[in-house]
Amino acid sequence: METSVFIEQIREIVKPYAKNTEALANLNTSTDFINDLKINSANLVDVVLDVEEKYDIVIQNEEMEKMLNVQAALDIVTAKLKEK
Questions:
Q1: What is the pTM of this model?
Q2: Is the separation of the CB atoms in 36 and 23 below 8 Å?
Q3: Where are the bilayer-spanning segments (predicted)?
Q4: Which residues in the chain come in under a pLDDT of 70?
């Protein structure tokens, strides 16, 4: 998956949960969901569920624990899509 496309898609997914709109506007692969976007851990679960729905994939708990930034999310989604 092209990184720029994923970034735009993930921006739309996290938009309802992000408390830091400036970080959301400047979203990139190094953006951290908790520290930069100020998404709380409960909402991070919602983000994972939304990602699963968007890409029709299942993210395991071990993978979810690693999905703390945009790059990790991209890596996990890309790997899951290749498995399909």
A1: 0.93
A2: yes
A3: none
A4: none
